[in-house]
Amino acid sequence: MKQIGNYLIDTDLYYEPEHHFWLSPNQGFVRIGFNPLLQETSGAFVAILLDKGKGVLPQGHAFGSVEAEKHVAQLVMPISGEIIVINEQVIQNPRLMNTDPYGEGWLIEVQATNFDQEKQNLIFGEENIEKWVLSEIRKFEDKGWIARP
């Protein structure tokens, strides 16, 4: 974990930059959750719906929705794969995405079908992640989504 701005970021993971997912690959399976910067700009999460059992979903396909204080959004697959596990704890307590985004607040586990190819579109490596997070912080500050210190 590394402090970047006001956020504790796990720099050992992959990050999908458009929707702010983190991805943790492990022997063909990938655990997916939201990074702390997204939860900061969204406010408290209040509800989440996750789909399972629809077979292999392509990258960019909807797999559920999330409702937070500041917005409602459709969730889209950051990689192609089949959802194998849904985190029932986060369904029962969506605030886990705010309070423990890298721990109990994860969303789904996917059996990846094309991770080696699709990881090229993800951000990886401490230096790359730090540059991206700092850029996102500036962008969100400029939009007024997070307060400047």
For the secondary structure, the number of strands is 11
The largest pleated sheet is described as: 6 strands, antiparallel
Query: Which CATH-level-2 architecture?
Result: Beta Barrel
- Listing every helix as H and every strand as E from the N terminus to the C terminus, the arrangement reads EEEEEHEEEEEHHEHH
The helicity comes to: 10-25%
Q: Please state the structural category.
A: alpha+beta
Our count of helices gives: 5
Overall number of domains: 1
Mean pLDDT rating: 91
CATH topology: OB fold (Dihydrolipoamide Acetyltransferase, E2P)
Terminal CA distance reads 22 Å
Percentage of β-strand residues: 25-35%
- What order do the strands of the largest sheet run in, or round the barrel if closed? 3-4-5-11-10-7
Shape: globular
Uncertain runs are none
What features would you highlight for this structure?
149 residues, alpha+beta, OB fold (Dihydrolipoamide Acetyltransferase, E2P), 6-stranded antiparallel sheet, 3-stranded antiparallel sheet, 5 helices
Can you offer a commentary on this structure?
There is one protein chain. This protein has helices at 36-42, 88-92, 96-99, 115-118, 126-142, and strands at residues 2-4, 7-9, 14-16, 21-26, 29-34, 45-50, 56-57, 62-68, 72-76, 81-86, 108-112. It has one domain (2-142): OB fold (Dihydrolipoamide Acetyltransferase, E2P) (Beta Barrel). Strands 3-4-5-11-10-7 form a six-stranded antiparallel β-sheet. It has a three-stranded antiparallel β-sheet with strand order 6-8-9. Strands 1-2 form a two-stranded antiparallel sheet. Helices cover 25% and strands 35% of the residues. The chain is built from five helices and eleven strands, in the order βββββαβββββααβαα. The protein is of the alpha+beta class and 149 residues long. A hairpin with a 2-residue loop joins strand 4 and strand 5 (29-34). It is globular and about 40 Å long.
